[in-house]
Design a protein that fits this description.
heterodimer, A: 770 residues, mainly alpha, Cytochrome C Oxidase, Chain A, Cytochrome Bc1 Complex, Chain D, domain 2, two-stranded antiparallel ribbon, two-stranded antiparallel sheet, B: 214 residues, 2 domains, 7 helices, 43% helix, disordered N terminus, disordered C terminus
Chain lengths: 770, 214
């Protein structure tokens, strides 16, 4: 096995860079989170258009997931892989490209999201040019990583490396297939999927982003840094094998549990639930291996803050992965979905598992990377305690808020009417929102103290880092199979005993030991497991037509309404409003349009979303569902409400959208948008595409006229050029929302389908004098 | 160097291999872990079979519809109970309640009831045609209700149904019968001595809150 000793050096410079970026983005991302928490209790903190809740929330999620956790996992992977593979990274240039490329992506995200450039899909908000950049940087990372595997000096791959491989392969697949879109401008695109299928793809991605961006790489890091810090062997190699493969194979199926009771076909939703339930033990395999590794080292946990961080991280991992299967059970989900329970669940995982594992790792790395002593152990202790208490306050307040809201939504009076209106359910949980903000503040305080601590540690670094030379024997080609261990069973000649011996070898994981020295085979197996499992769900979702029965009266939006929808997406309305009335009595009762016929089913049907690129079902109701809002209120109600929500609903948390009353509609963009929508399959007629801007103006005048009448009747001032303002498009969209299934043959939404109309109506050019 | 020298049979076997100083034990999987994992798989197979492979599990849409039907029926019963004073408007409003109409239809078609003399489609046989514009007692729903519950003129076939039907059934059957009016089916011709031409069922002028439905 041992060859000649070779000398080389690890690249720690790139690790230091990633650590610094991790800390920077941790502060930024979490501060944005704190601002969001405060905006909910003090709506005056919404500074539109750039700093409203709807635009900042994607910034928060992207910053903490991709910037904070992302940089942390890159730091961990670059540091531990070199050591586990006994080699320097494959290419220093690729390492630098990865680092700077990723930071550039984060900066561009931080600029474009507040400006309202978004795809409108959760955690996949970034627009197409940035998506391409992400793919390029990720491929560079993959080449660098697999190149490192190829030049390794360690024959077998350690379990941490398995998890890194799964991360790199799966994230690439998820990112590419969820973000397939047709550009409709420099920073505007429409996803190729619509409605039910888009929802499915999005949560296949969204759930597995949690799995393969926030779980597998962090498990890999746990497998390196926890035994390192505890100086104890890993509890069980067999458990590593079994829980790794079961995680990889089962996780990928679980996405549809985000879509229970929606228009997604029920079989998919059932698969999502069952695979989540089966995931419970594979997830806990990681927790067991983490916690049991500390056997015999618990006395050290009391003294070493690094281990304290790890213990809490692994405990929260265990909690979150028990809660996940619990929330995926349909009946539990009918209560928890759209409430703050989900927010509590996510933050237990993110702040506890990802946050604490990352900080534990950084505290362990800091003295080694900066070749000095940590500045203050007391500050580490302070960080640990503020953080832990902060998480507890955060998640407990969110559990209380979520369950309260869920119960209030489903409460009925004795006469069969709903007990609470939506606003009551919101007012009730405002105290919990204050607790949440306080918990978050505690956590951030700890983080800032931690950053100062690391910065001061860095300040005491040596003038020149010692770049230690490492020695390791080169890999020699394999000449003989792995030697088999001695066993009393092996020596026996009896047939049955031989079978027992083979079985024992299998259970010990001997077969896996062989895989571990074949990185290519191993990676292919991971890829196959992930892709095949995905196809099992994706293919039926796309190919079986009965999954989405078409509805004759459902038509595409008009160009103006579509423009209104684009504003809805751009302002992130989906962050607070769902568009999915589930077939649950309390829900159809609450969101029933008053013009529906008696006995008519009014829950959201799959066929209603066939032109929705992207779907906007949402995942949280800070405001009420909007799918059946169309024609529920008058134009002037929306007018007043959008200008100042609190003029209509005193305790509303919604930001004011006064800029929509000033900003003009970009009619020329409407033409491009309509053309792009045709490319993704929306059946606009040619006349409509060619005259999209003029038709939009025609409808804008119509809506503005109706609105003017209403305002004049109340003796109110009507602003000039009403028909050119964005608010008109938004009102047009809201009034159309969810009304198509109630449409009679005489309710015409696109009159231009009639050639006679096209001959008779003379359209005017936008921008002309009118 | 042999990679796989074990020190057996100590309880925690340590593999000889190490990665950057990290070693691994060959501990077995905890029994409870295996059991729960196995159970979750068995549960999943059973659940799938129960709901999606011909088992008798109910889809959520089905249970929603059932719940809504039960809820509508419950609401109807409450409405009827609250109906202390019958009025034209109240009766008219019930025409848009599918549960009531269905109940009325089933009462109408019960053997020995309305269907016997008026036929299932209401075109008349022994009793008059209910779908035409001719009426013996007047063309409002209250008129119909009075006839059904108290009976017609003595000697003719129409008896006082309130003796054998519950009030809920009386109301429902009137609501259903009223929906037949105006269909103008060919059937028993009107008897000019008995019936006056009044036109189809008269629609009352309703207050806003009585309109129901739309």
């Amino acid at each position: 096995m041992s060859g000649e000793l070779e000398r080389f050096r690890y690249d720690d410079d790139v690790v230091r860079k990633f650590v610094a970026a991790t800390l920077l983005w941790a502060v930024v991302g979490m501060l944005v989170g704190l601002i969001l928490a405060l905006q909910l209790v003090m709506p005056a903190l919404n500074f539109g258009p750039w700093f409203t809740f709807g635009r900042l929330r994607p910034l928060h999620t992207n910053a903490v997931i991709f910037a904070f956790a992302g940089n942390a996992l890159f730091a961990g992977i670059y540091h531990s892989s070199q050591r586990l593979l006994k080699t320097r990274m494959f290419s220093d240039a690729l390492s630098r490209f990865h680092f700077w490329g990723w930071q550039a992506i984060i900066v561009s995200a931080a600029i474009t999201l507040p400006l309202g450039f978004t795809q409108g899909k959760e955690y996949a908000e970034l627009e197409w040019p940035i998506d391409i950049a992400i793919a390029v940087v990720w491929v560079a990372f993959a080449v660098n990583f697999f190149g490192t595997l190829a030049k390794r000096r360690e024959r077998h791959l350690y379990v941490a490396i398995w998890f890194y491989i799964a991360t790199i392969i799966t994230v690439a697949v998820l990112h590419i297939f969820n973000n397939l879109a047709i550009p409709a401008g420099a920073l505007k695109s429409y996803p190729i999927y619509a409605g039910v299928q888009d929802a499915f793809m999005q949560w296949w991605y969204g759930h597995n982003a949690v799995a393969f961006f926030l779980t597998t790489p962090f498990l890999g890091m746990m497998y390196y840094y926890l035994p390192k810090a505890a100086e104890r062997p890993v509890y069980s190699y067999r458990l590593s094998i079994l829980h790794f493969w079961s995680l990889v194979f089962l996780y990928i199926w679980a996405g549809p549990h985000h879509l229970h009771y929606t228009a997604l076909p029920e079989w998919a939703s059932t698969l999502g639930m069952l695979f989540s339930v089966m995931l419970w033990m594979p997830s806990w395999g990681g927790m067991i291996n983490g916690l049991f590794t500390l056997r015999g080292a618990w006395h050290r946990v009391a003294q070493d803050p690094v281990l304290k961080f790890f213990v809490v991280a692994v405990t929260f991992y265990g909690m979150a992965t028990f809660e996940g299967p619990l929330l995926s059970i349909k009946s539990v989900n009918s209560l928890s979905h759209y409430t703050d329970w989900t927010i509590g669940h996510v933050h237990g995982g993110a702040l506890g598992w990802n946050g604490f594992l990352a900080f534990g790792m950084i505290y362990w790395l800091a003295p080694r990377l900066f070749q000095t002593k940590i500045y203050s152990k007391k500050m580490m202790e302070f960080h640990f305690w503020t953080g832990t208490i902060g998480i507890l306050i955060y998640i407990i307040s969110m559990y209380v808020a979520g369950i309260t809201q869920g119960l209030m939504w489903r409460a009925f009076n004795a006469d069969g009417t709903l007990k609470y209106d939506f606003m009551q359910s919101l007012i009730k949980i405002i105290p919990m929102y204050w607790f949440r903000a306080f918990g978050g503040l505690l956590y951030i305080t700890g983080v800032i103290v931690g950053v100062v601590n690391i910065a001061l540690t860095w300040a005491s670094r040596p003038k020149v880092y010692e770049d230690k030379e490492i020695e390791a024997p080169a890999l020699k080609p394999i000449t003989a199979p792995d030697p088999e261990p001695p066993s009393p069973l092996k020596e026996s000649g009896a047939h049955v005993v031989q079978i027992a011996y083979k079985l024992e070898r299998f259970i010990e994981g001997a077969w896996h030991r062989t895989w571990e020295r074949l990185p290519l085979t191993f990676s292919v197996m991971v890829g196959v497991a992930v892709v095949v499992a995905s196809l099992f769900e994706i293919l039926p979702t796309f190919l079986i037509r009965s999954n989405v029965p078409t509805i004759a009266s459902v038509e595409p939006l008009t160009p103006l309404e579509q423009y209104g929808r684009d504003i809805y997406i751009s302002d992130g309305c989906y962050n607070c409003h769902s568009q999915m009335v589930r077939p649950i009595r309390m829900e159809t009762e609450r969101y029933k349009p008053d013009f529906s016929k008696p006995g008519q089913l009014t829950y959201s049907l799959p066929g209603e979303f066939v032109y929705d690129h992207p779907f906007q079902w949402g995942s949280r109701r800070i405001g009420p569902d909007l799918h059946r809002v169309g024609r529920k209120y008058s134009h002037d109600w929306h007018w007043d409400h959008m200008m100042n929500p609190r003029s209509k609903l005193k305790k509303s948390m919604m930001p004011p959208y006064d800029y929509l009353f000033r900003d003009p509609i970009d009619f020329s963009a409407i033409t491009d948008h309509t053309a792009a929508l045709v490319k993704v399959g929306v059946p606009y007629i040619r006349y409509e595409v060619e005259n999209a801007d003029k038709l939009a103006l025609w409808q804008a005048k119509k809506v503005a006229g109706e609105l003017t009448k209403l305002l004049k009747a109340q003796n109110r001032r009507v602003p000039p050029n009403l028909q050119t303002k964005k608010i008109i498009a938004v009102i047009a969209y809201l009034q159309r929302l969810g009304t198509d299934i109630f449409r009679g043959p005489k309710d015409i939404v696109r009159p231009w389908l009639d050639p006679k109309w096209r001959r008779e109506i003379k359209l005017s050019q936008p921008g002309g004098k009118d | 160097m042999s990679e796989t020298e074990y020190s057996r049979p100590s309880k925690d076997r340590l593999f000889e291999h190490e990665f950057d100083g990290i070693q691994e034990y060959d501990n077995p999987l905890p029994g409870w872990w295996k059991l729960i994992f196995l159970f979750s798989v068995i549960f999943s197979v059973g659940y799938w079979a129960w709901y999606h492979m011909g088992g008798s599990g109910e889809s959520h849409l089905m249970s929603y519809k059932k719940e809504m039907t039960a809820f509508e029926q419950w609401k109807t019963e409450r409405e009827l109970k609250a109906l202390s004073k019958l009025s034209e408007g109240a009766l008219w409003k019930l025409r848009s309640n599918p549960a009531i109409v269905l109940l009325g239809q089933s009462v109408f078609n019960r053997p020995g009831l309305c269907v016997t003399c008026h036929k299932a489609d209401g075109s008349g046989l022994i009793g008059p045609n209910l779908t035409d514009d001719y009426w013996v007692f007047g063309n409002t729903m209250m008129d119909m209700y009075k006839v059904v519950s108290n009976g017609g003129r003595p000697g003719k076939g129409m008896i006082a149904w309130k003796k054998s039907l519950k009030q809920k059934e009386l109301i429902a059957v009137v609501v259903y019968a009223s929906t037949l009016s105006g269909k103008h089916l060919k059937g028993k011709a009107a008897d000019p001595n008995d019936e006056k031409k009044l036109g189809p069922l008269k629609q009352p002028v309703l207050r806003m809150d009585q309109k129901g439905g739309r």
